[in-house]
Amino acid sequence: MELASEKPITNADRTFYQLRKDIVEGVIEAGSKLSETELSTKYSVSRAVIREAINRLMSCHLVERKANVGARVVALTLSGLAELYQVREALEGMAARQAARSMPEAEIAELQILMNDHFERVKSGDTYYQEAGDVDFHYRIILGSKNQHLISILIDGLYHLVRMYRVQLGMAGPRVTTAYDEHRNIVQAIANRDEELAELLMRRHILYSRNNIENKLRLSPSTL
Amino acid sequence: MELASEKPITNADRTFYQLRKDIVEGVIEAGSKLSETELSTKYSVSRAVIREAINRLMSCHLVERKANVGARVVALTLSGLAELYQVREALEGMAARQAARSMPEAEIAELQILMNDHFERVKSGDTYYQEAGDVDFHYRIILGSKNQHLISILIDGLYHLVRMYRVQLGMAGPRVTTAYDEHRNIVQAIANRDEELAELLMRRHILYSRNNIENKLRLSPSTL
DNA sequence: CTTGTTTTAAGTGTCGACAATTTAGCCCTT
DNA sequence: AAGGGCTAAATTGTCGACACTTAAAACAAG
């Protein structure tokens, strides 16, 4: 995933993005230890750069560090997933409400165009949709809230962890078309400036999504 | 403010806490530039330590940095205050709801004892209450939610910024007794395990608090 | 005097080395 | 053989120096 606003300037930026990607995608496995010296050789940068990257990853809740001991990639747990989606429900619900209030008409129009594009992909059974499409949808709603704190908490903080759960627990199943309909309805509520409904639908959408993941976990024990 | 869980281990910890305190209390004024070399001499640590501290302050949204240029303390603005309290309303509302669901009986009992203590202070006109007491109250509700993400976002992330606004805009006025009553009612709702009411009262409490600050700002132009 | 360019200095980004702490292995004691 | 304390290796925390970028000062041309 690449966000328009995330252009690496310094080496630390690049390393941070790379590390984050490798953690989210499981190239560096969940729960494993992050050795600074090891990483510095692997990514061809100094330890200072690695340390800064790790510090930033801590802010994202992707790694945890104990002083004088070291950093570990977070472990994926059922309770952690539940807590994460609880917060998401509240925050993205609020984002949808704010978007219904503050999103400029032009941005809503663009969002509707995006939805049409998604429709084509869903129709043709494009698996692309599940991952990037969903992210893109939520991403735009969040930005539409126009609340800097909210944007930062969700985009910089929680979203990569959400993706980590989704990628590593193999979310590819078919909630695609039903999720698409939910997206569509949320956009409609925002276009109608119906704050109440936008929040309600978004909260429900995320709740469904959570139930979907948890059911999948109950069926295939996975490694949790 | 000192939180039980925040015991400085490394030099970077100490420096981070000190810097944060100085920023929140206005010793380092809002909007001012943070020179790494200057700070490193002032706080008697190396630039690496200062850099780590600044990075952590960025996570708290207390400073902003531009690559190759430097870091500045955030500016206090009316819109920023509004956005902050909007997010607070959603998150602390959720915290109150979760606390009503998950807070252990023993913790609720302690909270009620704390409220009695606060009552004594309010009765005797203790100005201590306004600051530390309020923080302490909210702090406990947040911890009572038992949601790690929520706790981290609020305590590590937003709370110090909230305090910064309150301290620097001179919140000493009398919302003390009425705020106390609101606190009391929230605790009661939590004790009754009334999730709905706990969230509602907390949201309203924060909304009142926000109105109070904004009114105060309208009366005394301040420097915003 | 103004504008655009070059130079220069101040400040950040990065690095390798050293100091302090933790952990694991070894030895000694019981 | 089991447990505790000591030693040594590995890892993190901290430091000062160097490289690079940016912004301001000095300068030249119009």
SSE topology:
The structure is a homodimer of 224-residue chains.
Chain A: H1 11-24, E1 33-34, H2 36-42, H3 47-59, E2 63-66, E3 70-73, H4 78-102, H5 105-123, H6 128-144, H7 148-168, H8 176-191, H9 195-219
Antiparallel strand pairs in A: 1-3, 2-3
Helix pairs in contact in A: 1-3, 2-3, 4-6, 4-7, 4-8, 4-9, 5-6, 5-8, 6-8, 8-9
The first copy, chain A, binds a DNA duplex (30 and 30 nucleotides) through residues 10-12, 35-37, 45-49, 51-52, 67-70.
Domain HTH gntR-type (chains A, B): 9-76
Protein name (chains A, B): GntR family transcriptional regulator
Pfam families (chains A, B): FCD, GntR
Main attributes?
224 residues, mainly alpha, Arc Repressor Mutant, subunit A, Four Helix Bundle (Hemerythrin (Met), subunit A), 2 domains, 3-stranded antiparallel beta sheet, 3 strands, DNA-binding
Strand order of the largest sheet of chain A: 1-3-2
Radius of gyration of chain A, in Å, reads 18 Å
The succession of helices and strands of chain A, N to C, reads HEHHEEHHHHHH
Q: Residue ranges of chain A: pLDDT <50 for 5 or more in a row?
A: none
Shape of chain A: globular
Largest interface by residue count? Answer: A-B, 31 and 31 residues
Number of individual domains of chain A = 2
CATH H level, superfamily name of the largest domain in chain A: GntR ligand-binding domain-like
The CATH class of the largest domain in chain A, by name, is Mainly Alpha
**Which fold name is given in CATH as the topology of the largest domain in chain A?**
Four Helix Bundle (Hemerythrin (Met), subunit A)
Mean pLDDT of chain A: 89
**Quick one: biggest sheet of chain A?**
3 strands, antiparallel
Distance between the termini of chain A: 25 Å
Which class best fits the helix and strand makeup of chain A? mainly alpha
Number of strands of chain A: 3
